[in-house]
# Entry
Amino acid sequence: MGKDSAPIYVTRPELPSLDDFIPYLRKIWDSRVLTNGGPFHEEFERKLADRLGVGHIALFANCTIGLVTALQALRITGEVITTPYSFVATAHSLLWNGIKPVFVDIDPLTLNLDPDKIEAAITPQTTAIMPVHCYGHPCDVERIQAIADTYGLKIIYDAAHAFGVECKGGSVLKYGDLSVLSFHATKVFTTFEGGAIICPDEKTRQRINYLKNFGFAGETTVVAPGINGKMSEFNAALGLLQLQGFDAALARRRAIDARYRAGLAGVKGISCARGTGETIANYAYFPILVDSDYPLSRDDLYQRFRDHDIVVRRYFYPLISDFPMYRGLPSAAATNLPVADRVARQVICLPIYPSLQDDQVDRILELI
Ligand SMILES: Cc1ncc(COP(=O)(O)O)c(C=O)c1O
# Structure
């Protein structure tokens, strides 16, 4: 097996046909309504809420600004408990609000914030918990809610990976005070860039809409130091079209996930991460953990893939708590985060996306 075939990347965005998108663009060009809650924005918001089975959605330019705004909307201050095993934007949204992240270790099975370890990290300064549904695998939403209720804390879920995921209570996005989605190019559902906050009621959504539009609550009224977090008509129109293809894309992801699992079942030293709480999964990522009884180290296997033009990724390595702006925090010490520290040194995310072919999956399996 050599470099004769095209590189395989960890993901490849699924797009509708350009011909199908042109009529949407024509409408935008004709109307000259480009942003600020235009007709595509309104329609996408409505149809997205229906598709996800949630009541109230505020669209955003991306998930990171959504997270920053969610924290503002709930007036979160002081300390927030979060996971080190995520993309840096999770903790960055706290720093952008002058909030101190407090890192808590992850559960070895779900790789999400470990509910058993949250209470010990609560101090008088703690105001909220920011868990991540990592890889789209649901957090233990009920136990986290019980802790938040006991201590009077808010919960903001970084749901960047969790588009379409359901657990026994329905959409996983309905849990906590707010959940924030990402529609970035690397996500299961993409509008190039984009995101959304799932809100519990219309009143909260209204406040969030002020915040994402510079704080404007009327032509001459500004009620908060808001930001510009608005989604444009281009992204919203694309989102409408993407909704039509989502179920087919999900079915293909499910088949790839099953092919990997079958192929890796007997491989000593490789384990496949899986969610425990979902009734409907989204197969957003395919993380494997390379154990010490595998003949190669994680980084040697990673390099072997790269040498064969298979561009796998070590999501999430390094841990957020290892980056310079976080590593001085007491909670960032590796001794406080033994599971996350181990998993970050074991993980490789294999390619998974709807247009990945069975023979490409087999090539990847053969390399392992
Ligand atoms: C867990 C997590 N949170 C937040 C983000 C940021 O999302 P966005 O790129 O839409 O700002 C990402 C990925 O991009 C992510 O993986």
User: Anything to note?
Assistant: The longest helix spans residues 233-264. The longest strand covers residues 56-60. The pocket of pyridoxal-5'-phosphate is lined by residues 62-64, 86-87, 89-90, 132, 158, 160-161, 182, 184, 195 (CB under 6 Å). The chain is about 35% helix and 15% strand.
